[in-house]
Structures are given as C-alpha cells and as structure tokens.
Amino acid sequence: MVATWHRSTWACWMCMFINGLVAGATSAPIIIDTDMNVDDMAALVYLVRSGADIKGITVSATGFSGQWAGVDSALRLLHKLNRSDIPVAFQEGYLGSTRLNLDYPSGMPPSEWTEANNRYLEQWIGLEPSQKPAAWQSAPQLICQILQSADLQSVFILELGPYTNLAAALHRSDCAALFRSKVQGLYVQGGRLHGDDAQKIQQSGALRGSGPGSGFPWTTEKKPNKASWNVFLDAVSAAQVWTFGLATVVLSDNAFEHLQVDPSDPGMYTPRNCTNKLLADVMLNWAPAHNAEWSGLSYWDQATAVVMMQQLLTKESACQRWVESNITISLQNDATYATYHEGSLGAPSEACLATSRVALLNDFYSAGCA
Ligand SMILES: *[C@@H]1O[C@H](CO)[C@@H](O)[C@H](O)[C@H]1NC(C)=O
Ligand SMILES: *[C@@H]1O[C@H](CO)[C@@H](O)[C@H](O)[C@H]1NC(C)=O
Ligand SMILES: *[C@@H]1O[C@H](CO)[C@@H](O)[C@H](O)[C@H]1NC(C)=O
C-alpha cells in the first residue's frame, strides 16, 4: 500500500511538473458553485485562463444574480473563452432560502441589487449569448455525477456563492458517500473569524463595507454584521455543509483587507506582451455598471480562486498568514446568527488571514499569459 501510494504520488508530481513546463499547468478536477456576481465572473475567466480543469459549474439562484441570468452569464463567458464543453447547471427547484430566523430575514437579495449583474455581460462587455443550452441535470445531480466518475480523493470544490447547491447534493441518495470518498477539499470565499488572532489582524486595518454609502448600495442592517453574505443567504445549507466536515480552505474577510479594486490595476499588473482584454473589461466596468465606488469593491472571489489555483499547481501562495480552526455555523437566534463558530466540531479548516496584494494581482492579471 505504502509503496503504491508513493509511486502514484511521485508519478503525479512528475506529470504536474512536466505539464507545468511544456503545456501550461492543468489543475486537479474542480467543481465551481457560484452565484455569478461580477467577482465570480472575473474569477471564472481567471480560472479558465490559468488551466483549471473545470468539470462543471453550478449556479445558485439564492445569491447575487437572478435565476434566469446566472446560468446565462456563465454560458456566455464560456462561449467567449471557447469552453462551451463545460456543463452549467441551474439550481434545483427554486427558492432554497433559509427562513429559520425572522429577525434576520434572508432569502434572495432584492432584485434592484441583482439587476446590474443580470445584464452585465450583455450590456457592458458586449458578449454574445451562447448557443449551448444549460445542462439537463440540476445542480446537485450534476455535482453527484461528476463525483461518481472522479478518482478517489481527487476533486476540489470552489464555493463562491450561497451553499444551497452543495447542501442539496449532500442530501441526494448516496451522494454524501461520494463527497467523503471523492472530494479532497473545499475552498470557500468570505466570512469573518473572531478568534484572538483574527481580531488582532482585523484591528490593524479599518473595517469597511459595513454600511450604506461605502460602495455598493448594500446594507448590513438586515443581517448580523459579522455574517458573511454567502452564509447568511442560506444559513441552513451553509450550516449543513460545514457540519459535514470537508477539509476546507477559507479566504476569510480578514484576507481582503488590502484587496480593494483600483481601476489602474489591469494596466499595472497585466504583462505588456499579454492580451487579457476580457478579464480587464470584466474588472473595469464593475463600478460604473453598478453605480458604485471602486473603494467598495474587493477581489473577493478572484482572490479565493487565485489562492486555490496556487495550491493546486503547487505554486507559492499569495496568502501570507494561515490559521487552523474547526468551524461550524451559528444558527442561534441572536446577533451571532449565520456567523462562523470556532470550536472542536465542524470542518477542519485552514483560514487565510492576510494576503499579499502584489503577489495576488500579479498572478490574477497574468493568467494565461505565460
Ligand atoms: C476551441 O476549442 C476546440 C476544442 O475544444 C479547438 O479545437 C479549437 O481550435 C478552439 N478554437 C479556438 C479559436 O481556440
Ligand atoms: C512576455 O514577456 C515575458 C518577460 O519578458 C516572457 O517571459 C514571456 O515569455 C512573454 N510572453 C509572451 C506570450 O510573449
Ligand atoms: C479540530 O478538531 C480535531 C478533532 O476534534 C482536533 O484534533 C484538532 O485539534 C482541532 N483543531 C483545532 C485547531 O482546534
């Protein structure tokens, strides 16, 4: 057993090495679950250009794009990137939103918050609709099928939106066993850690984005201010996924401290001899399309995608500070609702608490340029 493990591990290191040198690196298989906000769109462009082996994309209808628009946006981007072979699935049924705590009503964001995302690629980037239809499978069905045909402990899941689709897949007959045997790790965006260590980091920089006027026309008045949107939007699904206990890497809110978007970034970080127009366009229209201030926009999903790819391709990480923790979601009917709880239960996690802006943006804007 041990000898075989060593040999296959060695073979895999060799193939990664050779791929990296000759044909552009290819990652382990990845499933992306997303709500197709603009940061998700940019992350997707980055992932395709940097050689992610994307087996499927599932789109939730409980996050920051309308049900009709999120899948269409993913298909448009894939068409533009010549990757229409990747299946894109709708959320199963509709309205998987949590109604547990009526003091903090969750459910979908109001449509005036999602409108700009819904038409972004069409109106601001000028992308054609794709001829390729959405997958015939529902999101959970597609996830389970991908796991079914994957190698043991091989798949990584990237969660960029609410956890509705992942929880729905876990609940399918026999699929939890597939998660245990096939999934190697889960990467998730966002959520604040509140331990001593995390607190110190947090206090070293100003807190942002927590009120009207700070950028997006979003408010935290209707959610506990420590909750992450991706958790809050469907807290029960999030709680179920975290309790299940996949090995999880979380880019915590602390890690986005110095990651506001500046419109000069694409020009500054894209290599001179590289054409990365689609990525630059998606980034540069973000604030104007949403009538938002640049200072309110950060590299949320983009940074999560970059840190994941750096780990999967065994490159140096732009994350500078990690902390290990076991994490569950609080569903207490008080101000801790939909926040992370650190203890001895839940998902064994590595949380990134601080990132290098320069290292991150260099990698992000040079995707596919080598
Ligand atoms: C698009 O991808 C296909 C394979 O999926 C390839 O044969 C074709 O050359 C690609 N086209 C462009 C313009 O890159
Ligand atoms: C762009 O320039 C860099 C540094 O000079 C070089 O390493 C790279 O191969 C070039 N890429 C292309 C596509 O010409
Ligand atoms: C996480 O939980 C496991 C199992 O209970 C325990 O062995 C480990 O020490 C915990 N890690 C942390 C950082 O609390």
UniProtKB/TrEMBL annotation:
Positions of the Inosine/uridine-preferring nucleoside hydrolase domain: 30-334
GO MF entries: purine nucleosidase activity
UniProt xrefs under InterPro entries: Inosine/uridine_hydrolase_dom, IUNH, Ribo_hydro-like
GO biological process: purine nucleoside catabolic process
Pfam families registered for this protein in UniProt: IU_nuc_hydro
GO cellular component: cytosol
Gene: prpf39
Residues in the signal sequence: 1-27
Hydrolase among keywords: yes
Family: Belongs to the IUNH family.
Organism in which the protein naturally occurs: Symbiodinium natans
Name of this protein: Prpf39 protein
Annotated Gene3D superfamilies: Ribonucleoside hydrolase-like (3.90.245.10)
Keyword NADP: no
